[in-house]
Amino acid sequence: GVEEIMVALLQTKEWDISATDWEGNTVLSLAARQGHEGVVKMLLDRSDVNPDMADNDGATPLWWAASRGHEKVVNMLLDLSDVNPDMADNGGRTPLSWAAEFGSAGVIMILLNRSDVNPDMADNYGATPLSWAALCGHEKVVKMFLDLSDVNPDMANNNGRTPLSLASGFGQEGVVKILLNRSDVNPDMKDNSGRTPLWWAAERGYEAVRHILSERHN
Fold first, then answer.
1. Nearest residue to 92 (alpha-carbon basis) of 51, 128, 39, 56
2. Which segments in the chain show pLDDT lower than 50?
3. Which branch of life, at top level (predicted)?
4. 160 domain residue, yes or no
5. Which residues contact 141 (CB under 8 A, 6 or more apart)?
6. For tag attachment on the chain, is the N or C end more exposed, with fewer CB atoms within 10 Å?
7. Do 154 and 66 sit in the same domain of this protein?
8. Are 206 and 168 in contact (CB under 8 A)?
9. Are 76 and 40 in contact (CB under 8 A)?
10. How many structural domains compose the chain?
11. pLDDT of residue 22
């Protein structure tokens, strides 16, 4: 199996454990990405392995584990004091941001339980984890973020689009309903182009969402 191969490789003195591939991935990064818990543990037990080394895109092993929903690997990495749980990649996106996009509720819960993770950190495009969860229609994750007092449910990205605007433009009916139930979400907020959530729903042909927004408007 994979672990047996890794044991054999680790016993090879000529092998550089810190070597990277053409994308800057270390062995630890690749193991974290695939969720190989045994291999990750083996590597983290070594003093010559950097547990927080980023690849060419700025993605760390934690970033990969979080984005793929590997909860046990995430916990193993977060147990280390030299792993930054909120390190952003080159696009300004944190492990929490990627977990939100993919709807990894278990990983999100782990990260949100930490005081050193900002639940409302915007990326280079101004999108927060809530924005990503709303856009992708992850209702459970959206509710998790909305339960936090330090998350702005109406935060606009660099294009002026709020979580409601994004959810409306991608036909995420359930998320739209959740957001409209809040008094701190403006259903008529215009983006930088003057387009409202209703405009986006109508333009994209999402009739159910358009109806919900029209009813709220009336």
1. 128
2. 8
3. Eukaryota
4. yes
5. 100, 103, 105, 108, 133
6. C
7. no
8. yes
9. yes
10. 2
11. 84
